[in-house]
Amino acid sequence: MARTRRGQPIHGWVVLDKPLGLSSAQATARVKRLLDAAKAGHGGTLDPLATGVLPIALGEATKTVSYVMDGPKAYRFTLCWGDARDTDDAEGAVIATSEIRPDKMAISAALQHFIGEIEQTPPAYSAIKIDGKRAYAMARAGEVVKIAARHVRIDGITLIGQPDADHAIFEVKCGKGTYIRSLARDLAVNLGTCGHVSALRRTASGPFTEDCAISLESLESLVHSAPPSDYLLAIETALDDIPALALNAAQADHLKHGRPVRVQGEGGRIFVDTESLNDGDVLCAMADGRPVALARLEDGEIRPVRVLNI
Prior knowledge:
Elements: E1 12-18, H1 24-35, E2 40-42, E3 50-58, H2 65-69, E4 73-81, E5 83-85, E6 94-97, H3 104-111, E7 116-120, E8 129-130, E9 133-134, H4 135-140, E10 150-164, E11 167-174, H5 180-190, E12 195-205, E13 208-209, H6 216-225, E14 244-246, H7 249-256, E15 261-262, E16 282-287, E17 290-298, E18 301-307
Parallel strand pairs: 3-12, 14-16
Antiparallel strand pairs: 1-3, 2-3, 4-11, 4-12, 5-6, 7-10, 8-9, 10-11, 12-13, 15-18, 16-17, 17-18
């Protein structure tokens, strides 16, 4: 007998302002429990020592998680000079020190080398899998961790403050897969010193920003006193960069049952207006103002990719 899933069929996004000390999985579990949701997942891992924007998908919104994870990210981080750690953040053991403290002019010049597509080696203490094992688990067990360098995209990095000689604060906009700990480590090396991330905050993930993020404490209060619209964002919020396509009820029913919808009929009669779309485009099919499916325009048909059962 199939096991009955516990929890309520809640669909949408909660943009959590993740607190210090919780893993992304722990934070997601807290939100799921708080809302008594049947299904939940997060849109991109944040380290326990990081805070900020953690988009949490509930119910059918979990089918749109990849669009958030593939979207651009923004971070604010503090780099502590002269102290390298094996984890590349404040949690690790010191593995090297340096007396060199770069000044503003040197930092600004070095930043130019980290714009665009760059090669980056992820930290040994990361969730990347090597031969089926998590890199951090191997590192903690004392195993030698060899992670291949990869290409990542940095759209912009700005020095925004120097509280003292030992610290500098940066803001960075980047593509998916970028490790800020690696960026900080490599920047320090480029400047002839060493360093680690002493504070990290994600300020944006895909279409979600810290302006719409909510703390666990505030969420707990709202769940007991306010309507869901005060803390739950619609599924399609994650699809801001994907064109929406309005369908009628019959067309929507076709997609919901996994069947394609023809764009034109005999004699060139237009069934669906796809003039602004190109063949191969992914779109969000809508009916009566609600998302029906993620679909793709192919060979004159709207073909379902992921049906949203709302």
